[in-house]
Amino acid sequence: MEQTAFDDPAYRAAAVDLLGVLAYGELTAFERMAEDAKLASNLNDKAELAALATTEFGHFQRLRDRLVELGVDPMDAMQPFVTPLDAFHDHTAPSDWLEGLVKAYVGDGLANDFYREIASFVDAETRALVLDVFGDSGQAEFVVDRVRAAIEEDPKVGGRLALWGRRLVGEALSQAQRIAADRDSLTALLAGSVDRPGLDLAAIGRMFTRLTEAHTARMTALGLQA
């Protein structure tokens, strides 16, 4: 741990909030994927999604352990994010197997990209953990294969899933705005301070361009229009 960084109360609060939202995000991802596995039409797909759910829980455990290392109760760190994240999942509950796959790939992918961007502004140990946790968890090939096969079988599915992908992005942005409004520490982390450079308006613009391009690439990989 970089002691000098955590000596700053404002930075410590921001880092704890970041780890808290990430930990709860991974815990709910595990819960959601395990539930979505019930929608699978065959045992192989059920097992594939269950394996992804297990990966998400492993990520949660690593983030939880990091909070414990910092002397923070993980449950306390996660609590502020229960309401907004639960609201997001309530508003984006998939109606079928394919919507669940798109949500796992597109919705989670956008969030993960954003968290990797934020990782640029935290201490080296926390940054390494975030980048490792939010690297490719191996879901891409499985999801792309299943979604493309479904579209090939019934092209009308593509239009429905494209609309679903756009809805996921809109809901994710609303969720992010709500969290930023409620948690000044996270906003301050991006804005920076005297001894920690942050993002100016141009840099924020470039960040959202990268996020948009990555989202478009994911939708294209699925055979969907962004």
The percent of residues in helical segments reads: over 70%
| Annotated CATH homologous superfamily | Ferritin, core subunit, four-helix bundle
Count of DSSP H/I helices: 11
As a percent range, the share of strand residues is under 5%
SSE-based structural type: mainly alpha
Into how many domains do the coordinates divide? 1
Round the Cα radius of gyration to an integer and report it. 18 Å
**CATH architectural designation:** Up-down Bundle
Distance between the termini: 40 Å
The biggest sheet amounts to:
none
The count of strands amounts to 0
CATH class label:
Mainly Alpha
| Quaternary structure classification | single chain
The CATH topology is what? Answer: Ferritin
Q: Estimate the global geometry from the Cα principal axes.
A: globular
Topology as H/E string?
Answer: HHHHHHHHHHH
Low-confidence stretches: none
Mean pLDDT: 86
Note down, in words, how this protein is organized:
It contains eleven helices and no strands. It is mostly helical. The protein has a single domain, classed as Ferritin, core subunit, four-helix bundle (Ferritin, Up-down Bundle), CATH 1.20.1260.10. The longest helix is centred in the N-terminal third of the chain and has 28 residues. The mean pLDDT is 86.
Q: What is the topology?
A:
Layout: H1 3-6, H2 9-36, H3 43-69, H4 74-78, H5 82-91, H6 97-118, H7 124-133, H8 139-153, H9 156-182, H10 184-191, H11 201-222
Helix pairs in contact: 2-3, 2-5, 2-6, 2-10, 3-7, 5-9, 6-8, 6-9, 6-11, 9-10
Organism: Kribbella pratensis
Protein name: tRNA-(MS[2]IO[6]A)-hydroxylase MiaE-like protein
Domain Ferritin-like: 10-192
